[in-house]
Structures are given as C-alpha cells and as structure tokens.
User: Which sequence fits this backbone?
DNA sequence: TCGTCTAGCACCTTTGAAGTGA
DNA sequence: ATCACTTCAAAGGTGCTAGACG
C-alpha cells in the first residue's frame, strides 16, 4: 500500500507559458539519463481486459474516479534528482461516438475540447528514489463533464475517447521555472470512452467484478440488489436481459459481439478473476480492438514499429529510439496534417498516429527567471526528505489550481484559480477552435512545437490556449 | 421519440477517532 | 503513559434507476 497523500493538485495548463522553451534543453546534461527512464503500467492485465471490451469511464458533475485507476512503476530516475509526475487526458481522435447495437459508432465530429487540465501527483516534486521505491498511484484523479468544474478535476466530454498520458518532469520544485526535460508515456490499453452512464453491459460487469466499491452489485446470491430489481417488473426484465448477456460472457467467446470479436479472444470472462494471458502474446497479437477493424489498425500505428516487447509496446513508446525521431525537429512538425484533414478523414488513424508519434518525449518549459530565488535545491549530494517549497512568485509560469487542501504548504497554497478574474469562465464556453481565447502570449518556438502535433492553426495566439503538453484541442 | 444526462438511492469500502486492554 | 488492537460511525465511492431534458 503506497502512502501517497493524493490530495488534488492540478495544473490548469491553458495558459502556462510566458516564454520560449530553451532550445538547448534537449541537449542538456540530463538528456542521456532521461532516456533511461522507464515506466510500466500496473495491473496491465486488468487494463487489457477492459480495453479488449472497450473501456468506459464514468464522468459525473462532481467528478468520478477512474477504474481501473492509473498506477505506474518507475525506474531509471536519478535517485536524488527531483521529479514531478503529471497525467493529462488526450483525445484519441476527432470524433464523437454513440453506442448503437452493442458497438461503438462514430456519431459525428468531436465537441470542442474542454479546458485542458493536467493532474499533478500530490507527491510532486519528489526525488527519483521516492518515485521508484513503490508504485505511483493516481487513485484520486477524477474525471468530470462539468466544464465549470472548480475542483480541478479533469474535464472530458461524454461519448468521446481519451487516453491518459503520463509525464515525468525533472524539476526541483513544483513551480520551478527551471523545469527541464520531461518525458511522456502512454499506454494503449488505458484508452477509454468517457460516458455519463455505462453503455456496454460487459464493462459494467467488469467494473462490478473488480471494483471493491461496487461489491454490492456482484451477483453472489447474498446481496440485496435483486430486491431492488423486483420492485419494478421492467427492471426485472432489464436485469434478466443483462443477466443473459453476462451469462454469455461467462460462457465466454461463444458468440461475442461482432464489434469486438477478435478482441474477445483473450477474455475469459471469469468473475472476479483476471484472465491469465501470456504477456508476450498479448503484446504481439495486438488484440485490443473494441473499435472495429479500422480503428484497431489505426491504433496499431501508435506503437513503435517493431515493438514486440511489453516495454516497447505498452510503456515507453515516446522515447526517441531512432534517428528518425529527434526532439525539436520543428521543421518536421510543420508537415503535420491539419485538423480538418485529420478529423474529416474516414480514416482517423492517420491523424491519431501522427499526433501520437509526434508528441515529443522531451520538451521544455521556458526558463522563466533563473535568478528567482529557489526555496530548495536538490542535487546529487542532497537526498533528504521532501519539503515543499514555500510561496513564490510564479506569475506567468504556471497557472495552477489546487483543491482539497490536504497537503499543508502545497495544496493549501492557492496559486491560481482557473476561474479567477483574469480568466473568466465565459472564455471557456463557445464553439470552435478559438473558443478559449488566449490569456497570454506564446512564443514562436512553442507555437511550432504545438503545431507538430498535427493540428494546424493559422493564428499564433490560438495556441496559447493549449496546454503545456500540447495535444489536439479542436 | 430517442439519446443523453442527472439526482437520489442502497450497498459497499475506506478511514480515522474512540475505546479497551496489556 | 505508551502501544497495539478492536470497534464503530462517518465519509465517500459504486452502479442502478426513474425521470428530466434537448
């Protein structure tokens, strides 16, 4: 059991830049070591089980936890160097989906991207040794569909697909302007569809079977849910219907729905028991496909070519490994397809894969003011307990919102409210790519960096709405 | 009419304070 | 007085459901 105090501590990255990323950063002294950072997903089998069916995550107005929740293991960090861990949610594509006849179908273009938020692990910053000594859980990360959310939850659109991205930033303190290199990890099996109510009964069953909080809904004969069902004949019918479906699940793979026929191969449907699958096979066979053949094919393009090991497939996909990929190759980014081409295409994969493959594993935050006093300096010779930095003037560095003050000195330090006067809520509502007016200026460097993700915007100012970890916001 | 969303519900786990005994 | 353990209630997470909404 990890002992992390996971109070909310979120960054609102809509307007987090005030200066250019130093172009020399990629060649910094840590570049080599950064390349050794390795992240593995915990409970990959559970994730895969969900993914094979088509993971759905409930989003609610007050915020809902993820299940399975994000939990990772880290290695390769410099034990005494401090790191910040972040998670954000990236749209999988430019579509809105609907659940129709036991399968997901594209239901049109995606809604305009809600305010981009990133969840910062409350232990951040902590030395590498801290991150590596035990798994890092993002249990308390919450998802919401409330665009006016003031709790700092990650805002998503229902019926849209997302996947979490994990970022490791080597930084001495939370608000350090000297954020240096960061590395990004994604796990294909963690992608999900945000929903306000479960669509796929198989997902419901999986959640009930594996989430301890849903134990009361398990069909073990001793619970009382049948009593509730009996109150209403219609409910009974519904339950019977679902029960049939679940029985088919348990009977397994006899007649899986067409939309995920191949993906069900590895799902044994046993209650309360994860399918025991050979890791190698699960990686090589690439059977995650609740989205139909064309989507599966697209998804595969996200993974590094020739990736036939778990590490390559499910973890460190963004680490530059070949000459064909280098950080800050802005001239290449400029060749990215436009959002319209990506979204409008019937084959969304090109857009998605390009966007994924173009995400830089190394990026920087502008060296805002190196002369600013720092409350804590961590170096190889200093590897003591963690103390959080005191208040500093971080104006123009990061806009942060911290809720649920549970960590004195950090969480209670309200640096920034995304809904404060300088950023009225109104600017977050409204259609179109320019719905979130810029609150600051971006430099050409950052603009270029953002462009490389595959979405073209002609207006430089528009990019100021994009998060530090830029992705598609249409 | 239909798809989506929401509030309220019962059931459950988790958590921490209070009580007890060695 | 301290520590370990148990008990208990509150808080909060979960899916279910009916009804609202566009």
Assistant:
């Amino acid at each position: 059991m990890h002992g992390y105090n996971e109070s909310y501590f979120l960054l609102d990255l809509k307007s987090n830049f005030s200066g250019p990323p130093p172009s020399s950063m990629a060649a910094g002294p840590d570049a080599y070591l950064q390349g050794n950072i390795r992240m593995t997903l915990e409970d990959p089998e559970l994730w895969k089980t969900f993914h094979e069916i088509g993971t759905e995550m409930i989003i609610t107005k007050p915020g809902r936890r993820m299940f399975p929740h994000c939990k990772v293991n880290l290695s390769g960090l410099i034990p005494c160097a401090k790191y910040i861990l972040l998670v954000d949610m990236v749209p999988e594509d430019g579509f809105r989906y609907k659940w129709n006849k036991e399968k997901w179908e594209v239901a049109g273009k995606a809604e305009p991207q809600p305010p981009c938020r990133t969840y910062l692990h409350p232990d951040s910053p902590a030395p590498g040794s801290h991150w590596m000594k035990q798994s890092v859980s993002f249990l308390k990360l919450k998802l919401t569909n409330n665009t006016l959310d003031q709790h700092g939850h990650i805002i998503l659109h229902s019926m849209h697909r997302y996947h979490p991205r994990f970022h490791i930033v080597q930084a001495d303190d939370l608000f350090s302007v000297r954020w240096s290199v960061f590395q990004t990890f994604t796990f294909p099996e963690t992608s999900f569809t945000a929903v306000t109510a479960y669509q796929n009964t198989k997902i419901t069953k999986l959640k009930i079977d594996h989430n301890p909080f849903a134990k009361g809904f398990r069909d073990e004969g001793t619970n009382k849910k049948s009593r509730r069902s009996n109150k209403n004949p219609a409910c009974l019918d519904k339950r019977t219907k679902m029960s049939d479906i679940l029985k088919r699940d348990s009977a397994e793979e006899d007649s899986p729905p067409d939309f995920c026929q191949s993906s069900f191969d590895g799902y044994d449907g046993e209650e309360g028991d994860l399918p025991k699958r050979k890791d190698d096979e699960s990686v090589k066979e690439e059977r995650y496909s609740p989205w139909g053949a064309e989507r599966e094919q697209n998804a595969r393009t996200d993974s590094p070519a020739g990736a036939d090991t778990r590490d390559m497939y499910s973890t460190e996909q963004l680490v530059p490994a070949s000459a064909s990929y280098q950080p800050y190759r802005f001239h290449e980014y400029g060749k990215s397809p436009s959002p319209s081409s990506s979204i409008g295409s019937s084959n969304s994969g090109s857009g998605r894969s390009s966007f994924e493959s173009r995400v830089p594993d190394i990026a920087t935050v502008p060296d805002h003011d190196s002369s600013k006093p720092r409350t804590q300096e961590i170096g190889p010779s200093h590897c003591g307990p963690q103390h959080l930095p005191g208040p500093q003037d971080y104006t123009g560095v990061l806009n942060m919102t911290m809720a649920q003050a549970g960590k004195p000195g950090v969480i209670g330090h309200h640096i920034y409210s995304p809904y404060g006067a300088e950023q009225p809520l109104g600017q977050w509502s409204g259609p179109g790519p320019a719905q979130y007016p810029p609150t600051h200026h971006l430099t050409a460097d950052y603009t270029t960096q953002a462009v490389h993700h595959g979405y073209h915007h002609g207006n430089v100012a528009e990019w100021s709405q994009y998060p530090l970890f830029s992705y598609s916001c249409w």
